[in-house]
Amino acid sequence: MPDRKFRDDPSPRTRPGTGPEPDLTNGTDEPDAERRRRRARFLRDLAEARELRDRVQPRRAKTARLRHAMRMRTFRW
C-alpha cells in the first residue's frame, strides 16, 4: 500500500491501551460508583425494552407470563 508511511510500526490495535477505550484488564481503573451507575442505567433500559415488547406483542407476553408461572410452580426449593 503506497499511502502507508510507517511499514514497521505495528497497528495501534495490537498495543494495549492505545485504542479508543483504555485497557481495563484488572478492573481497578474504573470506579465502583461509575460502574454501578452504568449498570443501573442498563437495567432500566432493559426493563423499559421489555415493557415495550409486552405492549407491542401482548400474546407473546401472556405466553411468557404463563410459562414463568409454570416454572415457578414446579420449582423445588
Bin the helical content: 40-55%
Roughly what is the average pLDDT, rounded to an integer?
77
Relative strand content: under 5%
Cα radius of gyration in angstroms: 23 Å
Q: What report would you give on this structure?
A:
This protein is mostly helical and 77 residues long. Helix 1 packs across helix 2 (58-74). It has helices spanning 32-56, 58-74. The model has no long low-confidence stretch (mean pLDDT 77). It has two helices and no strands.
Please specify the SSE layout and strand pairing:
Elements: H1 32-56, H2 58-74
Brief digest:
With 77 residues, the chain is an all-alpha fold.
List the keywords:
single chain; mainly alpha; 2 helices; 55% helix
